[in-house]
């Protein structure tokens, strides 16, 4: 028996991807030759027969941790100018110029949009590991330019470079984590991305504390970010490449080797069989942009884009922006206020990590958006003339902390995890790029228009609009999002994608 298995193993390593898939079909005929419609309806309920035991999570965990360094950098660069902005404006000669200060903050968003727009094509063309390394490069160069800048132009150029890396990183991280994680811990691993982002934001806040006491400390804040970026680039040399990407390129033998690193040798055969159910390998032809906007793929791309749009239209970035002013009204310093917000965000993310693979993505999304809607109603009540001053302050602070906490429970981490799960392997990277671009565009306009809308509409009406978007998100999730907990990426694809 064992010689026969070794002979079969050596044989399928010499076969092309298509021949390999045919060999698996012959070997697993009873399992794979199920009627397509029956399989599609059953997959999201019970799934096919599984291995008697799950692969060890310890094998894939180091690779996921390395990937989340990009998310740490994402969070760090989002917050790195918040505390030092006043010192930067004084040293570079644009103090009091609110337009210039806004550009220092928002130039990253423009770069992030550019990076996210091309992220899918980069991830598919170079592979996930090289895409991570390419993401780290502009973050190192941009941080160095900002740290050594003598003028506002140099600062903006550095922020633009950093932004391109920020736009590329989240897409590649979401793809990589979804593709290298065992199904039974994929939700937990996906939540680590949000935790890493929170830690990055808190690190930027912590490192920026001495900025008012030490002249030029803001330059140190930028230099510090080059360290994790360099670690990310070096760590990817030793990390596994995505087996899904390798198989799509027709590199079957390499995919087996990476599955062995990630899952263990006893799970390689079943993992390759999963891939063979839908992907036939050698599919190196490029995906046209038009394919993502209509036809078989329109539904999943629409779901993904709408989830990211609703995430931003919920008002989360507006709440982050306005939090310092609310806390200042009750006498809490801005540094302490940011710490409260950071702790709420991190607490929610940790809870989501525990619940993601127990309750599932859909449940967390629904309850998260519902909690955010209720939190916004509290903000509306706080702005009401019927509330006393003391009650108004309590409602404002409590509603804000509750909003951030409930956001971190689902609306924050779930979309970035769910979308790589529901996108077919062939379009996964490019569809993620489209959805992330939608995210950045709406993020930009919410940040740009928030203060103007607050002045013209008032807090009651504006927060009511945010609450309405959150309530709309609850309905949208209930009607359109499927549960992916514990399912392989191939099972999810069969269940969602219409048969041709």
Automatic annotation (TrEMBL):
Keywords: Membrane, Transmembrane, Transmembrane helix, Transport
UniProt GO MF annotations: hexose transmembrane transporter activity
InterPro entries with a match to the protein in the record: GLUT, MFS_dom, MFS_sugar_transport-like, MFS_trans_sf, Sugar/inositol_transpt, Sugar_transporter_CS
Membrane topology: Multi-pass membrane protein
Main location: membrane
Residue span, Major facilitator superfamily (MFS) profile domain: 63-485
Gene3D superfamilies: MFS general substrate transporter like domains
Stretches that traverse the bilayer: 59-79, 99-119, 155-177, 189-211, 217-239, 300-323, 367-387, 393-419, 431-454, 460-477
Stretches assigned to coiled coil: none
Keyword Membrane: yes
Keyword check for Calcium: no
PROSITE patterns per record: MFS, SUGAR_TRANSPORT_1
GO cellular component, one term: membrane
Domain of life, per lineage: Eukaryota
Subcellular location: Membrane
NCBIfam families named among the record's database cross-references: SP (TIGR00879)
Similarity section: Belongs to the major facilitator superfamily. Sugar transporter (TC 2.A.1.1) family.
The protein's name in its UniProt record: Major facilitator superfamily (MFS) profile domain-containing protein
Organism: Ficus carica
